[in-house]
Input
Amino acid sequence: MLLTITTIHSPATELGYLLHKHPDRCQSFALSFGQAHVFYPEANDERCTVALLLDVDPVKLVRGRSARLEQYVNDRPYVASSFMSVAIAQVFSTALGGRCKDRPELAQTPIPLLAKLSVLPCRGGEGFLRELFEPLGYTVKATGHLLDEQFPEWGESKYFTVELQNTLTVSDLLSHLYVLIPVLDDDKHYWVGDEEIAKLLRHGEGWLSQHPAKEQITRRYLKRQHRLTRQALAQLVEEDNPDPDSTEESHAEEEAAVEKPISLNQQRMNAVVTALKDSNARRVIDLGCGQGNLLKILLKDSFFEQVTGVDVSYRSLEIAQERLDRLRLPRNQWERLQLIQSALTYQDKRFSGYDAATVIEVIEHLDLPRLGSFERVLFEFAKPKIVIVTTPNIEYNVKFVNLPAGKLRHKDHRFEWTRSQFQTWANHITAKFGYTVEFQSIGEEDTAIGSPTQMALFSLNN
Ligand code: SAH
Output
């Protein structure tokens, strides 16, 4: 059974980095059901192809069981099935997880890829094959095979030679193959239990919940076990619903798209990191850390000794954790990081003991009547020496060509303030809680309407 993956991304041999397999070498891996071999039939700057050849040992498959003839004589050694998924997960585990030490940005970049499967059993025929891959953006080419060439009257078999072409990350391609090959085959070789739901949700993340055939995929992947299927579908529906977590996710993208032309986020992060360093703040708690934009920068910088992220959205924290995992820091560096799920409007002992708290693009997500509770939680109880708050300057919104007049930058923003509203609020904090404040503009400054982001740097009075 052979799977090949070809790219014409230039230079094409970077595929070797993405898969963590050197194009000049042939490598073999022992699996419980046989051998997997990885090699590159072609590898040059224009075109590079990796081959995963599976040599399934039919004798190994039945070892320890009382074998019957059909257990030796079957199609398993010759077709793509759940054995291929297991091989993908074991041989290309780093690539499947989207990690790549040498080319981290490339691992996140969609590149042109062509996957060929020499023999893929498709229960449900070519139609079903297309229903699975076309919604994911693939161009599908399928060549059917007769049951027996000597007896064409017996008709078509369920076996196809398949080519799948798409522009996507290697990790997405491998995840699609991992889940969909056994779905097409509809005959999983190993026991399907609760942990299979976790695998399905993990490898289906980001695409399965919106897939038009998600019910069939889930049912077949879980070998038609009703209880498991129901459970998995319930979790997928949750993922699909506009719950606070996923709404937060899509809104974050929406806001980034509005602000993108001036790459405001980067300028905001730079301003915050500079202010932290100028204040010699080495132990930092990022309140409303979201998907970890700031945490990532702080964690990579050894200046910062302790980095804690807090968010109410568990989903955002999970994404933050995954993104931070991809930094592949040495183990001892992880002790500097802590992620906490908590609401900022309730007193929490875990917020205390930091040099600085950062609150980046968060206050505008709080209901105005709850802002008072947040102020006390932060400035009265947690009481760090430094607090950095950033928020949009609503006066600047007229400059965003892609934002309709009168709209806020993000659906979940409860308010956006003018410079004078923000400064009035900040001055009331200094009077009430014993801090001083300085203001800074972030992003391109317009003499009349100011800059897109406003920042307040509070320092605790001695
Ligand atoms: N600071 C991050 C994320 C900003 S989006 C960045 O700059 O990228 C706002 C974040 O605040 C979201 O992740 C949201 O989940 C979080 N948030 C909103 N209300 C919250 C609350 N009451 N308690 C904790 N986090 C909250």
About this structure: The domain at 244-460 is CATH 3.40.50.150 (Rossmann fold). The longest helix spans residues 170-185.
